[in-house]
Amino acid sequence: MAGRRDALLSKDKAHSSLFFRSPIAAAVLVGVIVGCVFAFLFPHGLFFGPHHRKLKTRISHPQMVSSVACVLPEQVNALKTDILAAREKNSELKKQVRSLMEKLRMAEQGKGHALEQVVVLGEKHKAGPFGTVKGLRTNPTVAPDESVNPRLAKILKDVAIYKELIVCLATYNVKEMLELWFTNIKKVGIPNYLVVALDSETEEFCKLNDVPVYRRDPDKYVDSVAKAGNNHAVSGLKFRILREFLQLGYGVILSDVDIVYLQNPFDHLYRDSDVESMSDGHNNMTAYGYNDVFDEPSMGWARYAHTMRIWVYNSGFFYIRPTIPSIELLDRVATRLSLDPKAWDQAVFNEELFFPSHPGYDGVYAAKRTMDMYLFMNSKVLFKTVRKSNPLKKLKPVIVHINYHPDKFERMKAVVDFYVNGKQDALDNFPDGSEW
Fold first, then answer.
1. Quick one: which of 59, 381, 394, 412 has the fewest CB in 10 Å?
2. What is the pLDDT of residues 195-226, one digit of tens each?
3. C-beta of residue 420 within 8 angstroms of C-beta of residue 266
4. What percent of the chain is helix, strand and coil (3-state, nearest 5)?
């Protein structure tokens, strides 16, 4: 037994000495030792630093999981806020581009008018060949005078686009129609409009709805009209107020409140006359004029007399340029209305605009243009003709003026339903005329 044990020991010694003498075996042994040391020093692994270990510790803790979850919704809300801000900025930039494009278009058109004025008002020229002569229809604009109303001048600089804007006079009595009026103007994307508030309630209402508004300085005459709330009185007042806008050098679309805007009217103006107005006419003859034969049998062979007739311009919607004839027209109308409270502003407006000079009377030399009756549509055209014609129903007017009917607000809403909301039967239930 002793001999066998000695033999085994001698054999183990021989193997161990062989192991230490082999380089491979030595390397394996060193690797095992180093691995044990690293395992002891870096229990989470060699490639995970303290930050990862801390994060793992935080996430493994149940309270920390909830805090991480709370951070994510805050980031999402911040991103949503940034997106909304970007959308608002984009919308504002679009408005600015549209405004600049409008100014460019107007500048080009104004340049053409200026050249015409130089040709006609400059040096004398010989008439050209037959059929080529064309007279000037565009009077020069007045020099702006901001001293007339500095406060209004400051407002107009912010509101108007290329010295043009829509102006509407309103009292709180027509609050519902006024809201529908400016709501559709905003939908169309018309930025250059202004409400002239005749009372403090209307002024506050406009401010709450982010509508450009102007309240005149205290004026006994204006304040008395606002309190009375009479439609004819307000209509007469607009000619006095409008004069200041023209003196400041602005072209104005004067608009009643019972009008629905479906397109931008400034895209459809000619600007070659002092006054461009919509007509109360309901067809080509009545809107644009016709030769009417008057028959008087007692005159024998001379019984027939030819007359020229045209239906009146609507004083609730017209474009007026800042020229001397335009201001003279406003002065005459305002003066007559102040002297005769029972006078109808539309009748006086047309008489001063159309009556020619004759013995004892000098007419107003203002150029005039009748607007397209299907683009600038009165409610008689709409309810008597257009809604009953499939081809005409496909046309989209610029504005619709509910001037022929007393149920104005209901018909205005129906117009919006038909042209904006696409409700094809929205106009069907209304009578042609003004019966309730």
1. 394
2. 999 999 999 999 999 999 999 876 655 555 55
3. no
4. 55, 15, 30
Contact 338, 330 (CB under 8 A): no
pLDDT digits (tens, 9 = 90+) for 133-160: 887 778 899 999 999 999 999 999 999 9
pLDDT at 275: 98
Which alpha helices (DSSP H) does 344-432 contain, by range?
345-354, 379-384, 390-393, 408-419
369: three-class secondary structure by DSSP: strand
Q: Which residue has the tokens 């009209």?
A: 225
**pLDDT < 70 regions, the chain:** 1-32, 34-71, 102-103, 105-123, 218-235, 436
Q: What one-character-per-residue DSSP string does 209-266 give?
A: TT--EEEPPP-HHHHHHHHH--HHHHHHHHHHHHHHHHHTT-EEEEE-SSEEE-S-GG
pTM above 0.85, yes or no: no
Q: Between the CA of residue 389 and those of 8, 379, 381, 413, 427, what are the distances in Å?
A: 122, 15, 11, 21, 12
Assess contact for 326 and 274: CB atoms under 8 A. yes
What is the spatial distance between Cα 325 and Cα 87, in angstroms, rounded to a whole number? Answer: 46
Please tell me the distance from the alpha carbon of residue 185 to that of residue 166, in angstroms, as a whole number. Answer: 10
295, two tokens: 């028959």
Cα angle value 334/340/341 (rounded, 5°): 90
Query: Rounded to an integer, what distance in angstroms lies between the CA atom of residue 238 and that of residue 246?
Result: 12
Placement of tokens 């529908």 in the chain: 180
- Mention every residue, 6+ apart, whose C-beta is less than 8 A from residue 283: 373, 385
